[in-house]
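Model: You mentioned two targets. I'll fold them one after the other.
Researcher: Yes, keep them separate.
Model: Target one:
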Amino acid sequence: MSSPLQSKSKAWTLEPDPAGKTLKTGDGQTIRLDASPTRGRGLFARYCGTCHALRASRAVARVGPSLDFLRPPAPLVRRTIRDGSSGVSATMPPQILTGQDADDVAAYVAAVAGR
């Protein structure tokens, strides 16, 4: 089942394949995820989506920054997960995830943020 998500520039229609490895944007882009970001998608939903906005995960939280706006590369996401972050409105504690879990979330966010 598809679900439209609105942004200022485009709507997302998430139409994952049965394995959850393909996402389609409202403007027709297809994003194919390999194993790491596919796994990261589930971890993001569980650990990150309550604070961060990310259209591809249907996350609309407003505690932390919008990852669609920031479009962080994987190394920055990984470092922020490891070290945590202090902001004006909230603090992200360090090591919410570690090891391969953190790598998978970083790969997912880098693949889909702002697209």
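Model: Target two:
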Amino acid sequence: MKRERAQKEKGKRIVIRKSVISLVHEAGQSLVEFALVTLFVILPVTFGIIDGSILFYKWVTLTNGAREGARAGAIYHYDGNEPSGDRDTMENVIDPARKNVITQTVEAMVKPLVSIQDLQVTYPDNPCIQQGSWEFCNVYRSGDLVTVAITHTHTSIVGLVIGLGKINLTASATMRIEPGGPAP
């Protein structure tokens, strides 16, 4: 009886040793599985979240820059001499000065972290009133709309891997130009 019991215990020991050895081999397999899951699932998802966050940040920055540029153009007051009321003064003096202020404002808002590929400032086509041979132009464009549009090309890290590459971001804002004249 003792002998039978000793053989059963010896058999249990052998089974326990085999299961411990198999657990050691399974630990190596688990490590390989974890490395593969990390490499092909966790890292791409993490980089996708980071890249998406950068893309969203740039879009918000462009939107804010366009809005601030349109606001700068809407409240702009010409600081030169009192202009005559003709189209030439409006198109060659006041509009370029307003566009310069808009460009400076947009660059101050956007440029530190986001590059600007294109900045467009547009106004309505014809702010002049024609009556017979007489033409009067609203040289300050009071009541007209100013539209600022900014374009940026984002190079996506994840997009290069999956084939998206570059994403064009565009933001625009339109505001009504406030009445005004030369700055006091």
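Researcher: Noted. Anything on target two?
Model: Residues 2-176 form one domain.
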